């Protein structure tokens, strides 16, 4: 059965709790809330009595949350976000708004649509601020759950119940290599592909990718000579080496090194890449957020 607490919890106490969890420092949380440090400490003491838990333990850099604090933070943060959405103004004026949006994405996605997006913003919403942060796709659902970001864009699928997605565009993999590569002279076979030296783009740092999973099913293994964590590096490396790589077609097409590369059909059956926009459903009816989603969708429709 769920735990019961005898002390009614003031909503303002949860706002304090959320700020301390975000900052992990009572002084910084007090500054963020425009409160005094003693007032924040008093609020935390009331919360400790309410939850019958220390919630935060002092450490040299600030405070460390207890398991109970970690457990309740997501529902508290979600609830506060829902309340703010209900009480915020419904009208959103792009031309005058100075809202800041935080978007998690990788350099491949950013290279495709950042320029046309900024061009649209400069005309339609010159005071809107965008903050791009790196994403491995794996961390995106948690960042959305914790309200750390407004949107995530990538090869994403909704792994949590309150996450929404919209497909922006599709892509496919090709095998990239320099134009003078020995394998560029004829149709690439699976045997040639496996015996070549490979470059792997891995955002998470994992030493294998989807190609290796497919090869293992066929009892095959390739040599990965180099791994990088940025899509933009791959075309430059391929253009000046004997490495080959399974790479997103669009990342090569828009690269300054495109003319130096030969693109072969990947000798493996693989699924297309569905690039999706993901957001938490607490933002579903947010006017500013809806405007941004529509703008991004329109920009990506012309890629």
TrEMBL record:
The HTH lysR-type domain, residue ranges: 9-66
Organism listed in the record: Atlanticothrix silvestris CENA357
A Pfam family that the UniProt record links to this protein: HTH_1
Name of the protein this chain belongs to: LysR family transcriptional regulator
InterPro entries registered for this protein in UniProt: LysR-type_TF, LysR_HTH_N, LysR_subst-bd, WH-like_DNA-bd_sf, WH_DNA-bd_sf, YidZ_PBP2
Cross-referenced Gene3D superfamilies: Periplasmic binding protein-like II, Winged helix-like DNA-binding domain superfamily/Winged helix DNA-binding domain
Keyword DNA-binding recorded: yes
UniProt entry keywords in alphabetical sequence: DNA-binding, Transcription, Transcription regulation
Record SUPFAM superfamilies: Periplasmic binding protein-like II, Winged helix' DNA-binding domain
């Amino acid at each position: 059965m769920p735990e019961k607490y005898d002390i009614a919890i003031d909503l303002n106490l949860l706002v304090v709790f959320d700020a301390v969890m975000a900052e992990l420092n009572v002084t910084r949380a007090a500054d963020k809330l425009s409160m005094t440090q003693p007032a924040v400490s008093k609020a935390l003491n009331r919360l400790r009595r309410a939850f019958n838990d220390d919630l935060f333990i002092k450490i040299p850099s600030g405070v460390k949350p207890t398991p109970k604090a970690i457990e309740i933070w997501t529902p508290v943060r979600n609830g506060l976000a829902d309340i703010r959405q209900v009480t915020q103004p419904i009208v959103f004026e792009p031309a005058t708004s100075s809202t800041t949006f935080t978007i998690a994405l990788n350099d491949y996605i950013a290279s495709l649509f950042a320029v046309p997006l900024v061009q649209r913003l400069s005309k339609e919403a010159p005071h809107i601020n965008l903050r791009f942060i790196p994403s491995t796709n794996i961390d995106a659902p948690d960042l959305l759950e914790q309200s750390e970001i407004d949107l995530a864009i990538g090869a994403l699928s909704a792994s949590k119940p309150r996450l929404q997605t919209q497909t922006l565009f599709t892509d496919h993999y090709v095998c990239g290599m320099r134009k003078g590569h020995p394998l560029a002279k004829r149709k690439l076979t699976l045997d040639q592909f496996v015996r070549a030296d490979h470059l792997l783009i891995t955002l998470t740092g994992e030493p294998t990718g989807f190609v290796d999973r497919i090869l293992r099913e066929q009892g095959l293994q390739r040599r990965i000579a180099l791994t990088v964590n940025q899509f933009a590096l791959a075309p430059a490396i391929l253009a000046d080496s004997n490495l080959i790589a399974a790479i997103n077609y669009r990342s090569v097409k828009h690269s300054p090194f495109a003319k130096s590369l030969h693109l072969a059909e990947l000798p493996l059956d693989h699924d297309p890449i569905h690039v999706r926009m993901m957001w938490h459903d607490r933002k579903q009816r947010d006017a500013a957020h809806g405007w941004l989603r529509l703008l991004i969708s329109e920009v990506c429709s012309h890629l």
